[in-house]
Amino acid sequence: MKKFWKNTNISLKAGLLLTVIFLMIGFVIYLLPHTDPFTFNSYQGKLKPSSVHLLGTTSMGQDVLWLLIEAIHNSLLIGLIVAAIGTVAGVFIGLLAGFSGGCLDRVLTVITDTFIVIPSLPILILMTSFMKGTSTVFIMALVLAMFAWAWPSRQIRSMALSMRERDFIHTAWFSGEGTVQVVVTEILPYAFTWALSNFMNATLAAIASESSLAVLGLSPGNLISLGNMIQWARDRNAIFTKQWFWIGSPIITTAVMFIGLFLLITGYNDYLSRKRGR
Amino acid sequence: MIKIEHLSTSYSTINGPVHVINDVDFEIYDNEIFGIAGESGCGKTTLLKALYDIVEFPLVVDSGKLVLSGEKDGKGFSYETGSIRKTWWNNISYVPQAAQSVLNPIVPLKKQFLDSIPKADKKKETKEQILKRIADYLKELNLSPDLLNAYPFQLSGGMRQRVIIALATFMSPKVVLADEPTTALDVVVQRGILMMLMRLQKQLRNTMVIVSHDMGVHYQVTDRMGIMYSGSMVELGKTEDIFERPIHPYTEMLVGALPRVGDKSQKTGIPGRPPALTNPPEGCRFAPRCPKATKECKKTVPLFRQVEPGRYAACHLIP
Amino acid sequence: MSEKLLEIKNVSKSFHIGGMLSKKKIDAVNDINLEIEGVKPVILSVVGESGCGKSTLCKMILRLHDFDQGDIRLLGNSYKDHKGYDPFRFRLEVQPIFQNPYESFSMRKTVDTYLFNTALRLKISKNYKEAENLIDEILKSVGMSLEVVRGKYPTQFSGGELQRVSIARALITRPKLIIADEPVAAIDASMKMNIVNLFKELKDKYQVSFIYVTHDLSTAYYVSDYIAALYRGCLIEYGPAKEIMDNPAHPYTQLLMNAVPRVGEKWDKEFTMPDTEDKEYAITYCKFAPRCPYALEECRKRRPDIKCSADGRKTLCFYPLNSEV
Question: What CATH topology corresponds to C6-316?
Answer without folding.
Answer: Rossmann fold (3.40.50)
